[in-house]
């Protein structure tokens, strides 16, 4: 028997309470099987959470949520707060807890909404934990609870994360700081404060046109000597949103020394040799900005050898095929302020490190949970998207092209055709058949999925044709409207850094054997 809520104020249906609270927190799109499958919906909800601060995914319990589990695990690994709403189904053994137990490993809170009197508080607590830790939560809704009335009183209060601040005095007194900004800064919700800090001192988280932005810190193994010398001289490293995976830290060589570092992470702040958990990065950083003694800070420090911007590549258009080493630099001319750039796992995610991003441009690429095919569904989450994706990854989730067309989304797809998994070839098997993929007619895909190709419709698709030479690419980039292009690269062509990184890792593995 279901008990009635004890509430002297207005009541609402449970589902209405849940989705109203999500809407209050800025969630205006709910993902589920309105995408082509639950895995792709999970990818889209993950991307939405990273870009908007919170995402939501609805699935049926069991058959639906197990399909989405890979996406939720990725959200957990790379700190994306996705609220997963599950509707019941069992393994026909009467046990509803199997799947909650599985999700317990990749979510920070799990609630089962069976009592109307406690449902509002349980929902709020779960969402609060997701926001605090920037990780997914699991909300289980039995089918007979969806329309049950619950107390609406808590809808009048915002879900907040309580701040608590350690001392900032030592940090505020230092004179030669270095600021490292990493992708988990969005999870800390401090991008505005970081921008203020950067401009006070005079990869897509900051304005790269500023004179004191010197590119990517590539660590001890790959950085130039001038960069290494400057980093050694700094008396403070402010490290925002670090993600210390091998892929993201140049094989763990770019991690700063903790004794002179303040690390702002989603679930903690590390101040030199002390760690403070479950406190507000935003509140602490605001206090630090207030206490900073600008008279002691060296403004716009020139780092010899790092302030020279890469020149625009000018290869001879007749000289042959496009190469990985220069493609992203040439493609850079197409980028506009405010663009959202998605770079799929593989050579695209490594090559895009060469982009010089215009102001207010966001670059989104995976660094730990390297699930290929992620980025095409993720392209649903943002208004104007440029997607760089390899042929192998595209084949994993191509059906989401139909969702993009159905929802009339503005996505420009750069399909990198290199006859298979080039990043896998770098690891093992240059000539092995298992690294090949089927050869598709990729530019026919929009028409197959129902796009109007006439050019006369209010919303349609346009394929520009295949791009094989620099001359082809220049012609494409000069066009006012873009939809989908296919760029042909050599099957064994990979960014130099990727080659050297993988070779270093293979040598280390052989030495350890």
TrEMBL record:
One GO term (biological process):
aromatic amino acid family catabolic process to alcohol via Ehrlich pathway
UniProt KW Magnesium keyword: yes
GO molecular-function annotation terms?
Answer: metal ion binding; pyruvate decarboxylase activity; thiamine pyrophosphate binding
Q: Could you say which cofactors this protein requires?
A: thiamine diphosphate; Mg(2+)
> Which InterPro entries does this entry report, sorted A to Z?
DHS-like_NAD/FAD-binding_dom, PDC/IPDC-like, THDP-binding, Thiamin_PyroP_enz_TPP-bd_dom, TPP_enzyme_TPP-bd, TPP_PDC_IPDC
Thiamine pyrophosphate enzyme TPP-binding domain: which residues? 356-427
Cofactor binding: number and manner: Binds 1 Mg(2+) per subunit.
Asked if Lyase is a keyword of the record, the answer is yes
Top-rank taxon: Eukaryota
The record's similarity note reads:
Belongs to the TPP enzyme family.
PANTHER family from the xrefs? PYRUVATE DECARBOXYLASE
Protein name from the UniProt record? Pyruvate decarboxylase
Q: Which organism is it from?
A: Polychaeton citri CBS 116435
């Amino acid at each position: 028997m279901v008990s009635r809520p004890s509430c002297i104020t207005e009541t609402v249906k449970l589902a209405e309470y849940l989705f109203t609270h999500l809407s209050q927190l800025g969630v205006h799109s709910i993902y589920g099987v309105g995408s082509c499958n639950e895995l792709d919906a999970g990818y889209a909800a993950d991307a939405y959470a990273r870009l908007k601060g919170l995402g939501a995914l609805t699935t049926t319990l069991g058959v639906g949520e197990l399909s989405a589990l890979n996406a939720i695990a990725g959200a957990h690994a790379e700190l994306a707060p996705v609220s997963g709403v599950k509707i019941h189904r069992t393994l026909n053994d009467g046990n509803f807890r199997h799947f909650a137990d599985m999700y317990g490993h990749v979510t920070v809170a799990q609630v089962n909404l069976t009592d109307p009197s406690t449902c509002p508080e349980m929902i709020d607590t779960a969402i609060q934990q997701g926001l605090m830790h920037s990780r997914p939560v699991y909300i289980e809704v039995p089918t007979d609870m969806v329309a049950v009335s619950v107390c609406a009183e808590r809808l009048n209060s915002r879900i907040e994360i309580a701040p608590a601040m350690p001392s900032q005095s030592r940090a505020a007194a230092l004179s030669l700081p270095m600021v490292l900004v990493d992708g988990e800064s969005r999870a800390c919700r401090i991008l505005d404060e970081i921008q203020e800090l950067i401009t006070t001192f005079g990869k897509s988280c900051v304005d790269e046109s500023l004179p004191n932005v010197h590119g990517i810190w590539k660590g001890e193994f790959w950085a130039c000597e001038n960069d290494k010398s400057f980093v050694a001289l700094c008396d403070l490293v402010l490290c925002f949103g670090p993600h210390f995976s091998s892929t993201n830290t140049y094989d763990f060589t770019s991690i700063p020394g903790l004794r002179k570092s303040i690390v702002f992470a989603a679930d903690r702040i590390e101040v030199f040799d002390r760690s403070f958990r479950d406190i507000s990065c935003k509140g602490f950083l605001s206090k630090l900005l207030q206490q900073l003694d600008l008279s002691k800070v060296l403004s716009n420090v020139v780092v010899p050898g790092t302030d020279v911007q890469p020149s625009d590549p000018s290869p001879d258009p007749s000289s042959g095929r496009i190469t990985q080493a220069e493609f992203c630099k040439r493609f850079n001319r197409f980028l506009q302020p405010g663009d959202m750039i998605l770079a799929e796992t593989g050579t695209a995610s490594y090559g895009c490190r060469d982009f010089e991003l215009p102001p207010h441009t966001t670059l989104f690429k995976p660094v730990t949970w390297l699930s290929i095919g992620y980025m095409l569904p993720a392209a649903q989450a943002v208004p104007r998207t440029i997607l760089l994706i390899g042929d192998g990854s595209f084949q994993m989730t191509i059906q989401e092209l139909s969702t993009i067309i159905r929802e009339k989304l503005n996505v420009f797809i750069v399909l990198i055709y290199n006859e298979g998994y080039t990043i896998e070839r770098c690891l093992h098997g240059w000539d092995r058949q298992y690294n090949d993929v089927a050869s598709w007619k990729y530019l026919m895909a929009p028409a197959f999925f129902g796009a109007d190709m006439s050019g006369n419709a209010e919303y349609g698709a346009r394929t520009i044709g295949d791009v094989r030479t620099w001359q082809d690419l220049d012609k494409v980039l000069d066009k006012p409207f873009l939809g989908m292009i296919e760029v042909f690269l050599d099957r064994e062509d990979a960014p130099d850094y990727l080659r050297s990184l993988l070779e270093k890792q293979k040598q280390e593995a052989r030495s350890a054997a």
